[in-house]
Design brief:
The structure is a single chain. The chain has 76 residues and is an all-alpha fold. It has one domain: lambda repressor-like DNA-binding domains (434 Repressor (Amino-terminal Domain)). It contains five helices and no strands. Helix 1 crosses helix 5 and helix 2 packs across helix 3. The protein is globular. The N and C termini lie close together (11 Å). The mean pLDDT is 96.
Length: 76
C-alpha cells in the first residue's frame, strides 16, 4: 500500500467512525486543537496525520489505533 492509499483508507475509517458518533468536523477539531479543515483534510487523505493526533482522535472516537488499522484492511 502506498502512502496515498494509506492516507485515504485511514481517513475513510476515521470519517466513518466520526459519523457513527454523530460528531461534526468542528467538534472533533476543537477537541484536537485544530481547524475543521484540518480534520477534513485528514479524512479525505489530503494530509498526513501525526501519530499523536491519530492517538487523540482515536480516543475521542472510542476506538484503538489498532482497531482503526484493522478496519483499514477491509477497505479495497
Amino acid at each position: 500500500m502506498n502512502n496515498t492509499d494509506f492516507r485515504r483508507k485511514l481517513g475513510a475509517v476515521l470519517r466513518n467512525k466520526r459519523l457513527e458518533k454523530k460528531f461534526s468536523l468542528s467538534y472533533v477539531g476543537s477537541l484536537l486543537g485544530v481547524s475543521r479543515n484540518q480534520v477534513s483534510h485528514w479524512e479525505l487523505g489530503k494530509r498526513s496525520i501525526y501519530a499523536e493526533s491519530l492517538h487523540e482522535y482515536c480516543k475521542i472516537l472510542g476506538v484503538s489505533v489498532q482497531e482503526v488499522f484493522d478496519l483499514m484492511e477491509e477497505i479495497k
